[in-house]
């Protein structure tokens, strides 16, 4: 079988281009040992996010439960307050209750019982 390359390969320093080998070795070492700094990710503008692809029924069910929890907290707070502060807390409670009714109606429209 004929080999197109000499056996052993030519090691004459005059035929090898050592500058090109040095550049290639430096590029390879720099790639692995000195990675380029990545751009810092910008700070998110919001803390909480909702995962894409969640169905509407699950979103509305979670909304309804969250509003019920907020209603319970404001109710407890309102009965510890007096005067105008109590009226403000009861107004907030009423808004939460109305929002809960709307969420429950939307949930019924999505999945009639």
Structural notes for this entry:
This is DUF3077 domain-containing protein. The protein is mainly α and 113 residues long. It has a domain at 56-110. It is 58% helix and 0% strand. Helix 2 (56-78) packs antiparallel against helix 3. The radius of gyration is 35 Å and the shape is elongated. The N and C termini lie far apart (82 Å).
Which key terms come to mind for this protein?
3 helices; DUF3077 domain-containing protein; 113 residues; mainly alpha
Cα-atom radius of gyration? 35 Å
The percent of residues in helical segments reads 55-70%
Number of strands: 0
* Number of separate helices: 3
Strand content: under 5%
For the termini, the CA-CA separation is: 82 Å
The helix/strand order is HHH
Give the averaged pLDDT, no decimals: 81
Structural class: mainly alpha
Poorly predicted sequence stretches spanning 5 or more consecutive residues: none
- What global shape is seen? elongated
Entry summary:
The protein has 113 residues and is mainly alpha-helical.
Element layout with pairings:
Blueprint: H1 18-33, H2 56-78, H3 84-110
Helix pairs in contact: 2-3
